[in-house]
Amino acid sequence: MRKDQRSMKEESQKMQSPCLEEVSQGCLHGCCPSPFLNQHEPQTKASKPRNSSAACRRDFASKTTSSIFPNTQFTNHESLPSMQDSFAEFTKAYPQYSDTYRVDQIRSREYYHLSFSYHTCLDYLGIGLFSYSQLQKQECPKYRIASSSFPVPPESPPPVLDIPFFGVSYKPGNLKTQLLHGGVASEFESVIRKRIMSFLNVSENDYSMVFTANKTSAFKLVAESYPFQSNRKLLTVYDYESEAIEAMCNSSEKNGAKVMSAEFSWPRLRLQSSKLRNMLVSKEKKKKKKRRGLFVFPLHSRMTGARYPYLWMSIAEENGWHVLIDSCALGPKDMDSFGLSLFRPDFLICSFYKVFGENPSGFACLFAKKSTIPVLETSSTSGIIGLIPSQKLFRAVTESPGTDTEVEYLASQSGRIEKGKTTYEIQHAEIVEKLKGIEMSEVSESDKGIEMECRGLDEVDSLGLVTISNRARCLINWLVSALLKLQHPNTNGTPLVRIYGPKVKFDRGPAIAFNVFDWKGEKIEPVLVQKLADRSNISLSYGFLHHLWFADKYQEEKEKVIERRNNEADGNKGKDKSDMGIAVVTAALGFLANFQDIYKLWAFIAQFLDADFVEKERWRYTSLNQKTIEVL
């Protein structure tokens, strides 16, 4: 480790709050279990009669409110209870959490690099982390953090060549043809396809599937192939800005679609049901066979954690809409509760981000109901991919001069490729050298490799829906309650944090959208909160809430909270409603999240109770001869 990096880390530890320092001092190097691991083991106790589901839902919110720091407000980050004391109170409030101890065992055994790095990953949702076992299988001596915003930590070894778990190649042709007839696929690709369909409970008799480069590609493929010339409307239900949905809307408009969106009521961001129903339900008394358009439904918000009733799918189908279900924000095993035997959407899109390893980072899947495929138009599209087994990819590298598409893809995956002939030749030489001595087994002998690729899915399957859902429910609701307990000192109860969307709720999703405010009530920019979190080894995201609706009584508040997206349209008199919204910080809990993760986030956010916290961070950063980040 370089001297300046070492001094920066030491200085950072000195400046940390006592609570964050406590989190950092645990034995977390993978050589011993999590300090909480043994406490999760279920105790033998007399069985109690189970309450009904309805009673559990009724009691959950009130029990959470009365159990998490009752009648207490924290105005100083140094006054927070210790992590151990907080965890003890947490398990009293949520005794069912102890039943999820197997998650901690999997995290300790398969993902101990998360603890080794002292890093908390709260910028992904679903089952998106690669395991350290997968990295070992590929004989890669370095580890990385599964984060979209945090780089490789300074103490990690020098970067070396990554050997990918598999490769991808882009398939020519159009979506309709690929869905109807498929194409040449390796045994590896076929096995992965079957494993995914089994994991999602999707029947091969009812649906066809293609792999896409990412979820944005999947949405664009549907938009470019859907017959908007005759089925004119595209209706979406998103309370946040999504790159994939923006791409879909742009492509749909070019194809003649009228784009519409549901709206969400301020301040709880509840779905405007009456407006959505009016857009879905046909005003014509006589039903016509002609389809009205495409209804895109996400089941729940990946930013606010709001869940939406499945009833909307039925209403859409009954009124002549094709239905596309966006399951990218669903947690592990959530599809088990979806019930494809009852609801059969025309399209289903899911994303497997880093499930199958770090390199490449993943792909998306687009499912189409076989009875719907003939409706699609034949159009030139891009974004469909095939999966290449690593053995075939390695063989292509060692046997070719580097002009093959697959070789180019492998070279680009190393993370160090640069434009220019010289860099590429060095990269190719590195690849060949790295692969010398590796046995080139046949594709038919890759069962063990496929087993490793699917390890993340197997782990989730072993845990099941109930375990994963109960764990996420306890963690996210404790975090919501704890954040709401932070209050600025010497004010009339000015809260530090404002949460958008559902607060404490039994059936909320494991994501939260919030903002941090100073003692004067001024919002601290989300990008600044994210960057400061990075310095504390916490990965957060930030996004943009939009399609908000304000009742008359909130019009004055609207002027204070609503803002333009990235100030893109400054000086433009024609304001698009979609450009209006609120920039927010977001945190999302994956299935491996534990209490230590959420406590660490709480302790970090509490530091903003110090009115000089941001100034101190700026001084600390510049005093160590570091380049000041722009937002500071």
UniProtKB/TrEMBL annotation:
Gene3D superfamilies assigned to the protein according to its UniProt record, in alphabetical order: Aspartate Aminotransferase, domain 1, Type I PLP-dependent aspartate aminotransferase-like (Major domain)
Protein name, UniProt field: Aminotransferase class V domain-containing protein
UniProt organism field: Gossypium davidsonii
